[in-house]
């Protein structure tokens, strides 16, 4: 772990008053802490059944009125018309070997985070916990959706024996899924299910397969996190403007400036990106992290958008559209996590650990906030109406969850209200505003903390970020994890 230079303005500001820190720690220590280890070990990012809302909480349940968590990307529909009514997007970088074990009970794509053949009552209860009206959707959705996944498993087996690396499995799989979707004709039936007829023989799908769950409609123009007509980020040019950017950026840092331990294992580094810049000038900095992130992500997004992985909007069997958008990534489009991101994450982790230690000298970091090596990066983009329901991040391996390896989350763009707590209960959750440049780390005793975004605060992004980088109004969030 690379250590922060100690003599820096950041450190004089990070810890905050002792009384306050103790208050936070005390409060948290008496809270009920659930450390349930769920389906760790399964790769289930963005593969959750959009109809299953909640489940074991593996993926976010976009708050309240949203259609649950998604496949590779999700975008709850909202009032934002600028992007066609979608209010969040997700994409993923990563370099994680994935063991794909598709079975009818554990299909790989769009699966629920709970077992499809599990007690339907239990599942329904889980779905209904905080999901609003849509929670009464039929649990069969999950079961019948196993069909294409089984097909894909077959495909995958042969794919694996090709030259492709095994770790491409997820992506290969998704590609197959995309092909299945394209080559099959879907006809709604009177009972609400969908008859799928094979149009292409090489896929290996049975002649007809019933699907009662969501399917793919409404292909749209690709989403771009930068506004139209903006030039693509040009690094050389960008660096010329960096001083201006920094000044403006700092000027709009409005709210609390103080980094602090939010609860055991959960650290907020305020205004971190800018502060880092004051300290490190000799290497890739976190200021450039913003630009780099935008550049990388925008580029990837565009690549993906024009490729086969277009967004689509699934529908319920009654025709209601899920309030999210999904995207399938092709293997060619999976990006490794740029090294610069990894460095920035490691530094942030080191600084968060320093803060924990500073607050409690007796802290044992390997328990309280262990170090992780990021190999997954999930990128969310929230437009100004975006939000994300309280959820636990439990998609990582059992081992990773058991060790409490932290999630490190960077915020860029508009500020947002971040909720966190021991329960999936908005009323009981604590709140903190995350601004552009803030980093939140949660591991150790907070690894399974419920968290979410209740709102994005419009017009709160650093102006320069919009002007210089052309970022669309909204919030970009990058979470790094170790599988
Ligand atoms: O946007 C955020 O700050 C949280 C994102 C998150 O919790 C997730 O992607 O799992
Ligand atoms: Fe999360």
UniProtKB/TrEMBL annotation:
Its cofactor is Fe(2+). Residues 71-80 have a biased composition (Low complexity). InterPro entries: Alkb (IPR004574), AlkB-like (IPR027450), AlkB-like_sf (IPR037151), Oxoglu/Fe-dep_dioxygenase_dom (IPR005123). Residues 373-483 form the Fe2OG dioxygenase domain. GO terms for molecular function: dioxygenase activity; metal ion binding. Belongs to the alkB family. PANTHER family: 2-OXOGLUTARATE-DEPENDENT DIOXYGENASE FAMILY PROTEIN (PTHR16557:SF10), ALKYLATED DNA REPAIR PROTEIN ALKB-RELATED (PTHR16557). This is Fe2OG dioxygenase domain-containing protein. The lineage of its organism: Eukaryota, Viridiplantae, Streptophyta, Embryophyta, Tracheophyta.
């Amino acid at each position: 772990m690379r250590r922060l230079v100690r003599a820096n303005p950041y450190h004089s500001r990070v810890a905050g008053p002792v009384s306050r820190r103790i208050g936070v720690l005390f409060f948290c220590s008496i809270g009920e802490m659930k450390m349930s280890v769920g389906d760790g070990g399964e790769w289930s990012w963005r593969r959750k059944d959009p109809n299953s809302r909640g489940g074991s909480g593996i993926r976010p349940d976009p708050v309240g009125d949203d259609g649950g968590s998604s496949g590779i990307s999700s975008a709850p529909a909202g009032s934002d018309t600028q992007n066609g009514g979608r209010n969040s997007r997700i994409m993923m970088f990563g370099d994680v070997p994935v063991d794909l074990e598709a079975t009818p009970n554990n299909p790989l794509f769009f699966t629920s985070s709970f077992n499809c053949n599990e007690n339907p009552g239990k599942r329904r209860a889980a779905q209904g916990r905080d999901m609003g009206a849509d929670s009464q959707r039929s649990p069969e959705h999950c079961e019948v959706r196993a069909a294409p996944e089984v097909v894909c498993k077959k495909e995958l087996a042969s794919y694996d024996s090709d030259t492709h690396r095994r770790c491409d499995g997820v992506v290969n799989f998704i590609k197959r899924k995309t092909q299945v979707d394209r080559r099959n004709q879907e006809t709604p039936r009177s009972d609400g299910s969908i008859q799928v007829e094979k149009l292409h023989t090489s896929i290996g799908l049975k002649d007809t397969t019933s699907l009662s769950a969501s399917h793919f409609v409404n292909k749209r123009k690709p989403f771009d996190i930068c506004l139209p007509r903006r030039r693509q980020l040009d690094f050389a040019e960008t660096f010329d403007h960096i001083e201006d950017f920094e000044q403006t950026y700092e000027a709009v840092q409005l709210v609390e400036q103080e980094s602090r331990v939010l609860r055991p294992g959960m650290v907020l580094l305020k205004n971190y990106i800018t502060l880092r810049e004051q300290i490190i000038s000799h290497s890739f900095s976190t200021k450039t992290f913003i630009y780099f992130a935008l550049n990388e992500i925008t580029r990837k997004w565009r690549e993906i958008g024009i490729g086969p992985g277009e967004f689509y909007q699934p529908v319920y069997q009654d025709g209601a559209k899920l309030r999210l958008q999904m995207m399938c990534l092709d293997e060619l489009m999976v990006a490794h996590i740029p090294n610069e991101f990894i460095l920035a994450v490691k530094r942030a982790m080191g600084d968060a650990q320093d803060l924990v230690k500073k607050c409690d000298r007796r802290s044992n970091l390997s328990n309280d906030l262990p170090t992780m090596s990021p190999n997954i990066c999930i990128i969310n983009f929230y437009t100004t109406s975006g939000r994300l329901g309280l959820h636990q991040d439990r998609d990582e391996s059992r081992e990773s969850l058991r060790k409490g390896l932290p999630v490190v989350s960077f915020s860029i763009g508009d500020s947002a209200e971040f909720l966190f707590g021991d329960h999936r209960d908005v009323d009981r959750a604590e709140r903190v505003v995350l601004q552009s440049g803030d980093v939140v780390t949660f591991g150790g005793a907070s690894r399974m903390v419920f968290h979410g975004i209740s709102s994005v605060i419009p017009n709160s992004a650093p102006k320069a970020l919009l002007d210089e980088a052309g970022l669309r109004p909204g919030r970009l969030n990058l979470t790094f994890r170790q599988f």
